[in-house]
Amino acid sequence: MLLTANEISAPGCSKDYWFCLRAKPKREHIAAAYLRQNPNTEVFCPMVRFRKSTTRGPVWFLEAMFPGYLFARFDYLRLHRTVRHGRGISGFVQFGSRFGLLPDRLIEELKARVGKDELVEISQQFTPGQNVEISQGPFRGLEAVVTRYIAAKDRVEMLLEWMGRSLRVEADAINLAPSMAAAPPPRHS
Predict the structure, then answer these.
(1) SS3 35
(2) What are the chain's domains?
């Protein structure tokens, strides 16, 4: 829904809308914390937690699900200046003079999917038969088929076609990515 400030402020118009706000780079959590201090403002800023391989080894990261954006519901007429100039906020998402407003239904659906803590954890659990691509090490870029996920070690056992042979190898789950291509079934020696 797109409305101008005059339409939002018009008498008889609903006072609370979900606004899409732009956050300063990597400051979505700061903007959300600032807005949550006001009891007349409802805030939704879902986050994603994931593990990534770094030079220090696997590290957990926490980032905004919608980088650079967060959502807030408030009375525009009373609070628009406070919100616009809030810590971590760079402004409203606008299309010309019209604000990008979101329906309650959409926000409620997103909230139901992420849960009350607004956090989604992305884990790399692989299932037998799944095709994966090796992203680190000497076999980087090659595809393999998962034969077993070893949860206790966070490792994956797989079959790899290499130089005309099927090899059974193990790798850290963090060094694998799901493959979109269908791998040929491995030959048994």
Answers:
(1) helix
(2) 2-122 (3.30.70.940), 131-178 (2.30.30.30)
